[in-house]
Amino acid sequence: MSVSDAALSLFGPLLVGAFLNAILYGVCMVQCFTYYQTYKKDRKGLRLLVLYLMVMETFNTIINLGLVFEPLVLNFGNPQAFIAAPKMLIPDAINTVFISTPVQFLAAWRIYVVSESKVMPLIIAFFGSCSLIGGSTLSIQVAFFREWAGFHRFDRAAIVWLAGSAAADVIITISLCWTLYRWKTGMKITDDRVSKIVRLTVQTGLLTTVFTLLDLIIALTVHRGNLAPDLALAKLYTNSLLSTLNARDKRDDDHIVHSGNLGGGIPSQHNGTRHSTRLSTLAFRITDVVGSHIDDDDLESGCVEIEHSKYRKNLVS
Predict the structure, then answer these.
(1) 281 and 174, same structural domain?
(2) Given 77, 120, 168, 223, which is the most exposed site by the fewest CB atoms within 10 A?
(3) φ and ψ at 271, to 5 degrees?
(4) pLDDT above 70 for 60
(5) Least confident of 9-23, 101-115, 181-195, 252-266
(6) Would 58 be classed as within a structural domain?
(7) Does the structure show a pLDDT above 90 at 100?
(8) How confident is the model at residue 1 (pLDDT cuts 50, 70, 90)?
(9) In sequence order, what DSSP letters do the residues of the chain get, joined into one string?
(10) Dist CA 228 CA 214 (whole Å)
(11) Mean pLDDT of 48-66
C-alpha cells in the first residue's frame, strides 16, 4: 500500500468524522440557545443537565479537532503518525459515555414517570452503566497502548461500551413508544400529540442506535482508525435530547400542569389553590374558556388539560 493510500484509509475517516462532529456541534449550540430562550421555567436540574452536556460537547469538539490536527499538522510527513494513534484518542471514549449515559438515564427516569414501573428503567440503567464502564475502560487501555496495529486487543471494552449503549437505546425507544401509545384516549388532538411524540422518539432513538451499531461493526472488523461514526456519536445523543425538549409547546404559566415532580405527583394551580395530581391520572381540567391546551411534557407524564366548560373530570388509568 502506498503512503497516499495509507493516509487516505487511516486519516480520511478521522477527517470526515471531525467535520461531521463540528457541524453537529453548531446544531447543538443553536438548539441549546433555543431551549434556554424558550423554556425558562423548566426544572433547574434539567437546565443544569443541558448546560453540562454543552460543556462536555465543547470538550468533545476540541478532542475531535485534536484527533486530526496532530497527525495532519503536527506530525505531517512523520512515519510515526501511521504507527501510533493521536493522543486525543485517549479521552474520546470516556468523553462520549459521559455524554450518552446521562441522556440514557434521563430517558429511563422519563419512562419510570410515565409507566410507574421500575423494570424497564432498571434495565436501561444497567445497560447504560455497562456502556459507561466499557467506554471508561477503553480510554484507560488506549492510554497505555496507542499503536494502530494492536487495536484488536480493545475489542472486549468496545463491545461492552457500544453493545450496551445500543441495547439501552433500543429499549428506550420501544418502551417510550409502547407507554405513550397506551395513553391514547380516542380524542384526536390528544392522539395526534401522542403520535408526534412517538415519531420523534423513534427518529432520535433509531439514529443513535444505527450509529452505535455501525461504530461497533467497524471497531470489530476494521480495527484501524475508521472512527467516522464514533466521532459523531456524542453529538447525536445531545441533539436527540435537545430536539425532544424543543419540540414541546411553550408553557403557558397561567394554564399549565407542571410535570416531572420528583415526589411522584404533579403540582398544579387552579383558581388560586394548589393540589397534586398523581402521575397515574389522566386529568381533564375544565374552565370557562372554550379551547384546548395540551403540553407534550404533560402527555408524557400522563396529564392533559382541556378547557371547554365549567366541569372537571378525572379519568384514572
Answers:
(1) no
(2) 77
(3) 55, 40
(4) yes
(5) 252-266
(6) yes
(7) yes
(8) low
(9) --HHHHHHHHHHHHHHHHHHHHHHHHHHHHHHHHHHHH-TTS-HHHHHHHHHHHHHHHHHHHHHHHHHHIIIIITTT-GGGGTB--GGGTTHHHHHHHHHHHHHHHHHHHHHHHH--SHHHHHHHHHHHHHHHHHHHHHHHHHH--BGGGGGGGHHHHHHHHHHHHHHHHHHHHHHHHHHHTT--S-HHHHHHHHHHHHHHHHHHHHHHHHHHHHHHHHHHT-SS--HHHHHHHHHHHHHHHHHHHTSPPP-TTS-B----TTSEEEEEETTEEEEEETTEEEE---SS-EEE--HHHHHTT--EEESSS--EEEE-
(10) 10
(11) 95
> Is residue 137 a part of any domain in this protein?
yes
Same domain flag for 302 and 189? no
Question: Of 246, 276, 296, at which residue does a domain stop?
Answer: 246
Domain range for 300 is 265-316
Q: Give the domain CATH number at 199.
A: 1.20.1070
Q: In the structure, what pLDDT confidence band is assigned to residue 253 with cuts at 50, 70 and 90? A: very low
In the predicted structure, residue 17 carries a pLDDT above the cut 80: yes
Distance CA 128, CA 18 (A): 25
Question: Which three three-digit cell numbers place residue 317?
Answer: 388509568
CA–CA gap between residue 220 and residue 77 (Å, rounded): 29
Considering the domain architecture, whether residues 241 and 277 belong to the same structural domain is answered as: no
Say if residue 103's pLDDT is above 90.
Answer: yes
Has residue 254 been placed in a domain? no
The better pLDDT of the pair 93, 271 is held by: 93
